[in-house]
Automatic annotation (TrEMBL):
Official protein name in the record: Glycosyltransferase family 4 protein
Lineage: Bacteria, Bacillati, Actinomycetota, Actinomycetes, Kitasatosporales
Species this chain originates from: Streptomyces fuscus
Enzyme Commission number(s) from the entry: 2.4.-.-
Every Glycosyltransferase subfamily 4-like N-terminal domain range: 14-173
Keyword Chaperone among UniProt keywords: no
A single MF term (Gene Ontology): glycosyltransferase activity
Keywords from the named record: Glycosyltransferase, Transferase
Enzyme class: transferase
The keyword Transmembrane helix appears for this protein: no
Pfam families, A to Z: Glyco_trans_1_4 (PF13692), Glyco_transf_4 (PF13439)
Length: 388
């Protein structure tokens, strides 16, 4: 199958959606499919052979963050050229409601279109304001996917229609087989995320740290991600700052090694999350997880059975739970075991197969569609497809 995938956010700036698209593309390539990804990127940026640049992105406030998007006449021309050259059997666009390549592709593409919605935002002013523009484009979509029930709810409330829920995927074995790093072991807490983005929650963790260190002064916090390290520790007493180690941006291999090494992974995100891929990666690596009780995080952690939850933005609750877990190796071992079993449902062997099933559904003839209905009851209804 010839598969075209559209990434809305700049390939130069790593993020959950980009990682999802990268891993999805490489999964399909390993299966023997022909895959091309169109993404915003500086023209001089080294790209994987399957990625085509749609030109430089610009920063735009979007969903409580700053997204690097690509939109305009030049981008539209590159979209048309990519579609013409690709001759795709199916085109899979991500975040079609964002003002970026996905929306341009909706306007330009002919043939089967699949869309994945990642955003969870119950009060999206951007979606409400752009409804009339989006509706005409989104009518061309053959099937809709949401990465979580909360992303599906955002879609239904703002744009109508429905979607099948297929979560983000992860290569579980890649994380499970990573080698721990000795210098990252020994009473360590891990955090991975953009330091300069408040909704990733590092300020909440920093506020909790003095109480954690008062109970366990030997504990270290390891922080991986881009941003200003000095600014991040400004509110921390000077005598405690040596207990925080900033690792900067880390490779995929070092991210897996970090997650394999820490005694506890903390996800203090404050909102705007529709899924929580870092939780899946942490469970895959065998790290006990402590996360804010966001709806999306609770779903990923099986409502607290595969990882513990604390009250969102409550630094005292975070500190209390972290100290308790650090002092209870038996509980941490229990979380590792439960997480390692639970996380298998997010492996690409399952997630990729479900997405491929959607592709086959929208490209198949009437007989194949009927067979798919028999094998996966209700799929066509959840995708919002009409019968022939």
């Amino acid at each position: 199958m010839r598969i075209g995938i559209v990434c809305p956010y700049s390939w130069d700036v790593p993020g959950g959606v980009q990682f999802h698209i990268r891993d999805l593309a490489e999964y399909f390539i390993r299966l023997g499919h022909e895959v091309s990804v169109l993404a915003p990127a500086d023209d001089d940026t080294p790209l994987p052979p399957y990625v085509v640049s749609a030109g430089r992105a610009v920063p735009v406030p979007y969903n409580g963050s700053v997204a690097r998007l690509n939109f305009g006449f030049l981008s539209a021309a590159r979209v048309r050229r990519w579609l013409h050259d690709g001759k795709f059997d199916v085109v899979h666009i991500h975040e079609p409601s964002s003002p970026s390549l996905g929306l341009l592709t909706c306007w330009a593409a002919q043939g089967p279109l699949v869309a994945t919605f990642h955003t969870s935002n119950p009060r999206s002013k951007a979606m409400i304001a752009a409804y009339s523009i989006l509706q005409a484009a989104l009518e061309k979509i053959s099937a809709r996917i949401a990465v979580s029930e909360y992303a599906r709810r955002t879609l239904v409330e703002h744009l109508g229609g429905d979607a099948v829920v297929i979560p983000n995927g992860v290569d579980v074995d890649f994380f499970a087989k990573a080698e721990p790093k000795a210098e990252w072991q020994g009473d360590t807490i891990g955090f991975i995320g953009r330091i300069d983005e408040p909704r990733k929650g590092l300020p909440v963790l920093m506020k909790a740290l003095p109480r954690i260190l008062a109970a366990r002064p030997q504990t270290r916090l390891l922080v991986a991600g881009r941003g200003d390290a000095e600014e991040a520790v400004e509110g921390l007493p000077e005598e405690l700052r040596s207990r925080v180690e900033f690792l900067g941006m880390v490779s995929d291999e070092d991210k897996a090694r970090l997650l394999r090494s820490v005694d506890l992974y903390v996800a203090p995100n404050t909102g705007g999350e529709s899924f929580g891929i870092i939780l899946v990666e942490a469970m895959s690596a065998g790290a006990p997880v402590l996360a804010a009780d966001l709806d999306a995080f609770a779903q990923v952690l099986d409502q607290g059975a595969a990882g513990e939850l604390f009250a969102n933005e409550d630094a005292d609750a975070l500190a209390e739970a972290a100290v308790r877990l650090l002092e209870d190796p038996r509980r941490r071992a229990e979380l590792r075991e439960r997480g390692s079993v639970h996380v298998r449902r997010f492996d690409w062997s399952t997630v990729g197969a479900d997405i491929l099933s959607v592709y086959e559904t929208v490209t198949a003839g009437a007989a194949a569609v009927a067979a798919a209905d028999d094998e996966r009851p209700g799929l066509r209804a959840r995708l919002g497809l009409a019968r022939d």
